[in-house]
Specification:
The protein is α+β, with helices and mostly antiparallel strands and 255 residues long. The protein has two domains: 213 residues, Sandwich (Immunoglobulin-like); 40 residues. The chain is built from five helices and 13 strands. Helix 4 packs across helix 5. The radius of gyration is 23 Å and the shape is globular.
Length: 255
């Protein structure tokens, strides 16, 4: 950990010597750039850390607020609402979202509401209530907001959306670190960790780190096969189902 801290400081000083800009410089790092999901995967803990350096020496990291946003791959989703009609639970409404992140976590040095106003938080998605879900279809704004809140609540209960208003620690006047836990049901794909340095309600610097969550082993091979040869994979799955059905039918007919 100390070696990584020295590396961050060295990179920051190198960036400082090569830059004449007056804005702060962010040098982000992650403890794992690739997370392998195997059978029995129980989750992972990511350490996101780095340095924030002011080229003109006017501030230290302790005078900034740091917010880290970790987002998983975006995916289209249809959210359905059930209602009790004539004593039976039935689908009563639906809403489509074009780009709902499969995972979304925010860690900050203090509550985001104390760092920036709602407009700035919405621009940079600094919270679960500011996720840009891109709703589609014709539906009343009030209905869209209700469905969006329902989606966020559902994924919060599943551990896929989370906020930690005290999740970033700043130390030594230049270093910061945050820990974000990925649950066992995390979706595979590319993830982005965006770090923001904020002072006086303004985002002064940002930096992005990439993380890959991938299935490996037999499960990974099955996923790759289904994606590369989808037609043959589908036909194989159908033939396997038919074969298992025939075997089961013969077994039970003899017994």
């Amino acid at each position: 950990m100390m070696m990584r801290a020295f590396r961050i400081a060295f990179l920051g000083l190198a960036a400082l010597s090569l830059s004449a800009q007056r804005e702060p410089i962010l040098v982000p790092e992650v403890s794992q750039s690739r997370i392998e999901v195997r059978q029995g995967f129980t989750g992972a803990n990511l350490l996101l850390y780095g340095a924030v350096i002011d080229p003109i020496g006017g501030r230290q990291a302790t005078e900034y607020d740091i917010v880290v946003v970790l987002k998983g791959p975006a995916e289209p989703i249809r959210l359905r609402e059930k209602d009790r009609i004539a004593g039976i639970w039935m689908n009563a409404g639906a809403s489509d979202f074009r780009s709902a992140p499969a995972f979304f976590a925010v860690a900050s040095s203090r509550p985001v509401a104390e760092i920036v106003d709602e407009r700035t938080a919405a621009i940079y998605e600094l919270g679960t209530e500011f996720i840009q879900l891109s709703p589609s279809g014709e539906i009343e704004p009030e209905e869209q907001a209700r469905f969006a809140a329902g989606l966020v609540d559902m994924r919060q209960r599943g551990g896929l959306y989370k906020e930690d208003p005290d999740g970033v620690r700043i130390s030594e006047g230049v270093l910061y670190q945050a820990r974000i836990a990925l649950p066992s049901n995390v979706i595979t794909g590319p993830y982005t960790a965006e770090t923001f340095a904020i002072a006086d309600g303004r985002v002064l610097a940002s930096a992005t780190a990439e993380i890959e969550v991938a299935k490996v082993g037999l499960e990974g091979q099955v996923v790759n096969a289904s994606q590369r040869w989808s037609l043959f994979y589908g036909l194989g799955a159908i033939m396997l189902s038919l074969g298992m059905g025939l075997l089961a039918g013969r077994y039970f007919s003899r017994s």
